Amino acid sequence: MASMAAAQKEQSAFPYQFNIVKEIKHGAVEDQCQTGTCWSFATVSFLESEVARISNKQVDLSELINPRLMYPKKVDSYVRYQGKQQLGPGGLSHDVIQAVREYGLVPESVFSGFVMGSSVYNHNVLDAYMETTAKMVLDRKLNEENNDWKSGVETLLDTYIGRIPTSFDFEGKSYTPATFRDALGIKADDYVMLTSFSHHPYYSNFAVEVPDNWSKGQYFNLPLEEFYQAAVHALENGYTIAWDADVSERGFSYKNNIAVLLDEGVKKEEMFTTKHVEPIVTQESRQKDYDRFATTDDHLMHIVGLSKDQNGGLYFLTKNSWGEKNSSKGYQHVSGSYFKAKTVCMVVHKDALPKELQKKMGK
Fold first, then answer.
1. CB atoms within 10 A of CB 195
2. How far apart are CA 199 and CA 196, in angstroms?
3. Are 279 and 268 within 8 A, CB to CB?
4. Rounded to an integer, what is the distance from CA 47 to the centroid of its chain?
């Protein structure tokens, strides 16, 4: 398994000094390249850690199988909603969990998603073709009655991502995707989706209102402090997190390996040369940012541990899917304040939750 501690190189002039206090087994940093598939990369990385925890196996799972499985459903949904929903390549972690439930899992070696001799992912043409196909159906330029266009979508995805495997051999054994999933000990119903917003009742489920939630996935709503403590509790007890967040903030810096919450008055040239006191985050301030679209659903990542700065401040050790292009080789330290303010939702194993929360959820 990869070790961020071994890869990390701190910048000498950087005002933050980090000490990793918890690092949970996880796979190597990946690069989603020119695709909008962070939702699959983050959640597959999360499931690789789950396999390591449950079965003590190191398995490189396919990230691109999930877009291949879910894109036909997304195009169909777009047409059924008459173009009144998201059609881009985005999604959320529950889309992967649903694919695991309905189909299963396959290794990267069986389904890499590389086609036509490519060794990098680029879905720009694919995304454009899917949008064009769906809009032609809505414009009645394709026959929507006999569903021939659906076969066209499948052919398009076969060409640009690959054919869906129904069986395969791996390490001397034969599997279907479902039997491989079961052999790894992954059970889709063991994973819970959590969020924290005050415009819905707490301790109830609702479909988080962000464009990439095209499949209307339901998330269990918690008060902010309970939501935050659930994340810390999970990590302290050896469970990782699939994390969906806003990364458009000035304080989110992949280059500087960090995400901190900054006051609007902090000057650009001082953002990462001085250690700033972060604003206090409340349920009210979090909700206000969501309501005015200052917090948006941008990117999914994999939280693999905890770190502390030189003053004892707690951070979430986060694995990104943009390759090893920063000095921490693909990792970032996300402050507790940033997590509270800018998390949209997260996925964890049900056993990662405090016992009292499990009872509230009926788990």
1. 21
2. 9
3. no
4. 11
pLDDT in tens, 160-174: 999 999 999 999 999
Q: Considering the entire predicted model, what is its pTM? A: 0.94
Q: Which two tokens stand for residue 160?
A: 């640009």
pLDDT in tens, 279-303: 999 999 999 999 999 999 999 999 9
Q: What sections of the chain are H helices per DSSP?
A: 4-7, 38-55, 65-80, 93-102, 124-138, 148-160, 177-184, 224-236, 283-291, 336-342, 355-361
- For residues 343 and 143, give the distance between their C-alpha atoms in angstroms, rounded to a whole number: 42
Residue ranges and CATH numbers for the domains of the chain are 12-361 (3.90.70.10)
Confidence of residue 219 (pLDDT cuts 50, 70, 90): very high
Tokens for 22, please give them: 């918890």
CA pair distance 257, 8, nearest whole angstrom: 9
Q: Is the pLDDT of residue 324 over 60?
A: yes
Instruction: Judge contact between 92 and 217, C-beta under 8 A.
Output: yes
Tokens 């769906």 locate to 134
Asked if residue 300 lies in contact with residue 242, where contact means CB atoms within 8 angstroms, the answer is: yes
- Side chain identity at residue 217, one-letter code: G
Average pLDDT, the chain: 94
Residue 177, CA distances (Å) to 38, 48, 186, 273, 351 in order: 22, 15, 12, 49, 25
Among residues of the chain, what percentage have pLDDT more than 70? 96
